[in-house]
Design brief:
The complex is a heterodimer. The longest helix of chain A has 11 residues, at 70-80. Chain A has a 3-stranded antiparallel β-sheet, with no helix packed on it. A two-stranded parallel ribbon of chain A has the order 1-2. Chain A folds into 2 domains: 1-106, Metal-dependent hydrolases (TIM Barrel, Alpha-Beta Barrel), CATH 3.20.20; 110-173, Urease, subunit C, domain 1 (Roll). Chain A has 7 helices and 8 strands. Chain A is an alpha+beta fold. In chain A, a hairpin with an 8-residue loop joins β7 and β8 (165-166). Chain A has helices spanning 4-11, 19-25, 41-46, 70-80, 86-95, 98-103, 127-133; strands spanning 15-17, 51-53, 56-57, 119-122, 137-142, 145-149, 155-156, 165-166. The longest helix of chain B is centred in the last third of the chain and has 4 residues, at 62-65. Chain B has one helix spanning 62-65, and strands spanning 2-11, 18-23, 26-32, 38-43, 48-50, 58-59. By secondary structure, chain B is mainly beta. Chain B has a domain at 1-46: Urease, subunit C, domain 1. In chain B, β2 and β3 form a beta hairpin. The chains are: A alpha+beta, B mainly beta. Chains A and B meet through β3, α4, α5, α6 and β4 of A and β1, β3, β5 and β6 of B. β3 of chain A pairs parallel with β6 of chain B, so a sheet runs across the interface.
């Protein structure tokens, strides 16, 4: 594999890992310690290969716990690949957004002038917080059309002398 | 006049306080602090505006048959 990675990069081949189903199925028959069943995501990325994450199974006989949530996919991928540095976590966000769009040749994707008015407003301040909280997708637009809205998530607390609400987003600065 | 103007958004690449202007289904400008007449203006302060999530390997399976309630599209 280590010999193949530079050739994969040179050939312009992309890679798609499916962390939810990979970690569920692969290594299942190992004794302990069990192997992690996902390809070499950080090594491929470091070599310049475009790596994206897919959900793969959502609700099928192999994996039935999905909801089509790509932040959940990024969350699992980050853990399985141990990509817990600041840069690594942002790369996992890219793996379900810009990298995935690149794999599929979606030229209108991205928040830049000239691209489609397709984007998602998240109840999070940055990509790492979005993954950490699997943040509420407040609004989803596709080519200017508002497709979906979800109210902000907050827990109402009934604890004397404490804050009345919690959003799990600590004050910064 | 713009169709949609989103202001004070944070972007996934680390930029903050960004305005995203939309006209005719496309993004026409992404810049800091833009104020312009628009049919709809949305203040996204403290929120992340992300490019769409894309799934490059996906099996629908039971998801295709998932019905939370009677859907007019099924008739």
């Amino acid at each position: 594999m280590s010999k193949l990675i530079p050739l994969i990069a040179e050939a312009g081949v992309s890679a798609v890992a499916n962390p939810l189903i990979n970690i569920t199925l692969q290594g299942r028959h190992d004794t302990y310690p069990k192997r992690r069943g996902m390809t070499r995501v950080p090594e491929l990325m470091a070599a310049g290969v475009t790596v994206a994450f897919g959900h793969d199974c959502v609700m099928d006989p192999w994996y039935s716990l999905g909801s089509g949530d790509m932040l959940e996919v990024a969350h699992m991928g980050l853990h399985v690949a141990q990509m817990t540095s600041q840069a690594g976590m942002r790369q996992c966000f890219d793996a379900v957004t810009v990298n995935a769009a690149k794999v599929m040749g979606l030229t209108g994707h991205g928040i830049e002038a000239g691209r489609d008015a397709s984007f998602v407003l998240l109840q999070a301040r940055d990509p790492i917080e979005a993954i950490r909280l699997r943040a509420t997708r407040l609004k989803v637009w596709r080519k200017r059309q508002l497709l979906a809205e979800t109210p902000p998530s907050q827990a109402a607390l009934s604890l004397a002398g404490r804050l009345a609400v919690a959003t799990f987003m600590p004050v910064r600065g | 006049m713009l169709d949609l103007l989103i202001t004070h958004a944070s972007l996934a690449d680390g930029r903050t306080g960004m305005s995203v202007a939309v006209q005719d289904g496309r993004i026409v400008e992404v810049t800091e602090g833009l104020q312009a007449p628009a049919h709809q203006t949305l203040d996204a302060a403290g929120q992340l505006l992300s490019p769409p999530f894309c799934d490059p390997h996906f099996h629908m399976d039971a998801t295709l048959r998932l019905r939370e309630q009677a859907d007019p599209a099924d008739r």
